[in-house]
Amino acid sequence: MILPIVAYGAPVLRKVAQDITPEYPGLEKLIADMWETMYASSGVGLAAPQINRDIRLFVVDSAQIFENQEEDEKGEYPDEPGVKKVFINAHVMATDGKDWPYNEGCLSIPKIREDVMRAEKVTLTYQDENWKEYTETFNGITARVILHEYDHIEGKLFIDYLKPLKRKMLQGKLNDISKGKVRVDYKMTFAK
């Protein structure tokens, strides 16, 4: 089932999400719905707060980025061909490497894209959908997508990385998003 994506301004996007246990009700269906929602809205990642759940769960499919690359972009990033993974109870252990810019967007903040500086690598602990535990390091585009989704479960948004003047310039657009004055081709819910 395709779920509505929560728009900028909703309190759930600013909450630190809670760890869950294998007994979390309907988890398997929720994960399947998150994949379906992410693909239906042309995303490469989706975090539970974006569907109004304050739990530490996100899905990432960075492989799509590489599948859709132009021929001259191939081999540009060290994490090619990307990953498709579920992250439950993720906690970042370390970031490493140089910070590098990349133009990011967010399904909860439609029609706004900005360059954001993020570390080259991230090491995190997490569990997959079968509750197998991992401590794993990711790099390149995959690390960026993971860090973006991880921010969601920490109550942060990519716009928090922008300089104050840039944020101020975007405030009108952000206000319009929070009031539902934006058209998107996927289901959204707006703060009241």
From TrEMBL:
Cofactor list: Fe(2+)
Highest rank taxon of the organism: Bacteria
InterPro entries, per the entry: Peptide_deformylase, Peptide_deformylase_sf
MF annotations from Gene Ontology: metal ion binding; peptide deformylase activity
Active site, UniProt feature: E149
Binding site for Fe cation: C106, H148, H152
Biological process per Gene Ontology, one example term: translation
Cofactor note: Binds 1 Fe(2+) ion.
Gene3D superfamilies named in the record: Peptide deformylase
Stored HAMAP family: Pep_deformylase (MF_00163)
Family under the similarity heading: Belongs to the polypeptide deformylase family.
Job of this protein: Removes the formyl group from the N-terminal Met of newly synthesized proteins. Requires at least a dipeptide for an efficient rate of reaction. N-terminal L-methionine is a prerequisite for activity but the enzyme has broad specificity at other positions.
Protein name, as recorded: Peptide deformylase
Gene: def
